[in-house]
Design goal:
By secondary structure, the chain is of the alpha+beta class. The chain has one domain. The chain is built from seven helices and four strands; from the N terminus they run H-H-H-E-E-H-H-E-E-H-H. It has a two-stranded antiparallel sheet with strand order 1-2. The protein has a two-stranded antiparallel sheet with strand order 3-4. A hairpin with a 2-residue loop joins strand 3 and strand 4. The two termini are 22 Å apart.
């Protein structure tokens, strides 16, 4: 997927200005669209968090499905925060921020990654390790950019 086409799709989807505002992907201020970051590790998939089990970290509100997950996150948030703030790993490897869908999650070397959609995840998986290296290089350059 070429960067200009990807950016055009984001613009058409109405996400381009929002998706680039913060180091953490947090629509409506909720990290990961309100999904429990710890659940991806413990429950092997997306689980919605509850507003009553919230924790503020890196300028975003993180929601959790249960008190044990909240406490695990509070004890070591960096163990659970997704790479690239929850923005698309493929997009980050290309040098830009893009929104993500919870169903595109992957855990690699005990790190959580997301992608824009399933089609993009399929492309990312074809050369995942190289994309991660590229994204690791790009992220410090783009994480604070609007």
């Amino acid at each position: 997927m070429k960067t200009p086409l990807f950016a055009a799709l984001l613009t058409l989807a109405g996400w381009s200005s929002f998706a680039q505002q913060s180091e953490i992907f947090a629509p409506d201020g909720k990290a990961l669209k309100g999904y429990d970051a710890v659940a991806f590790f413990r429950d092997a998939g997306p689980v919605k968090g509850a507003d009553s089990l919230a924790y503020s970290y890196k300028g975003a509100k993180w929601l959790f499905a249960n008190r044990a997950n909240l406490e695990a996150f509070q004890a070591n948030p960096d163990a659970f925060v997704p790479q690239y703030g929850g923005y698309c790993a493929y997009g980050t490897s290309e040098g830009h921020k893009a929104p993500t869908e919870a169903e595109t999650w992957t855990i690699v070397d005990n790190k959580l990654y997301f992608n824009y959609n399933r089609k993009v995840k399929t492309s990312w998986m074809k050369n995942r390790d190289e994309r991660i290296k590229q994204a690791d290089t790009q992220w410090p350059l783009i994480k604070d950019k609007p």
